[in-house]
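**User:** My hope is that you can spare some time for a protein that puzzles me. As I understand it, each token names a local backbone shape. I would be glad if you read both lines and explained how they fit together. The protein I mean follows directly.
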Amino acid sequence: MTIRVDQERLWRRLMTLAEHGATAAGGVNRQAFSAEDASARQLIVGWAEDLGFEVSTDAIGNLFVRRPGSDPDAPPVISGSHLDSQPTGGKFDGAYGVMAAFEAIEAIGDANVETRRSIEAVGWVNEEGSRFQPGMMGSQFFCGHHTLEEVRPLRDAHGVELAGEIQRLIGATPHVRMRDTGFDVSAYVEAHIEQGPRLEAADTTIGVVDSVQGLRWFAIEVLGEAAHAGTTPRAAKRDAFVVARRIIAAAEAVATDEDDTIRFTVGRFEVEPGTPNTVPSRVFFTIDLRHPEQATLDRVTATIEAACADAAPCQASVERTEDVPPTIFDPIVVDEVERAARASGQSWMRMVSGAGHDAMALSLRCPSGMIFVPCERGISHNELEAARPSDVAAGAQVLADTLVALANR
């Protein structure tokens, strides 16, 4: 039988889920391990149990909803995203991927399609990292990058320890079966809103994501000398602001590419002592650098480091605080997504993800890939985040067909 996702059912569930942590401005504040996160979890467990799906969780609180396959010993195909949001987040970031996976396994069941491998929808915990750092905690824990002993002592901005919050989240559904983490997985597919403007600008419905661009963060400190602004000659100044501006200009020059692929942002900039009539003695700033190719990241990095080394008459130090290499998704999954997109009759394009996702962690564990659908004006991490019902249903349809193909490999 032909699998057909139910657009109205998917949209209704997305809107119901958005009530858990709803903000007055129309967005969602459902931060990881919060009461709102726990109530969203209860909602999904209830839906799954009503449909007869198997539900389980692991020691950090990742939530799994399983549609069994004919071979119980075969590693499953899994699909999902995260339920947590930014403090002023939207209805779709993360939540769409979980609900698309849920809709996919329900639609597969409605069509009475048998798969050899089980298919599981997953809600990873704490992808955003807005309350407890680091982000992508649940997926990285699953893949063995963190241990409970490492994360349990972490505290949020109010001093609340993560250990107790994990237990509270799991305790919200005490009857759900505990499961060993890090079980074998055959493949992983994550549906997500694009969080960027390319699909909408191209009037295209499906993004076949073949990679995630690499990321480097830099923390740079420039030390000069405070002096009177009215009496110090230019030649005698050790102006930390002037040198910082020079470093940024040098880096920005090589980060301005013709095809507008490099992402370069100075997100934080502090000047001391910060008075109108004093030459700045210290500047601290950060750089966020992203690109799909390691060679380009290396080239811009070399420029930043050289500009800091040539900081006279001041001194500059640079620290690389984050270094995430580009992620190349496995052709096994990417090609299946492309075949499903082509068969759906929807417009589609291959593309690179500009943002990080749980699929990055899973890609080190099993063949992985992603499906993007448009979001209005590319806006995300914002209460104005919006998507069209027809687009989210189209993405879920491509997901369902991809999952069946992977589960029968």
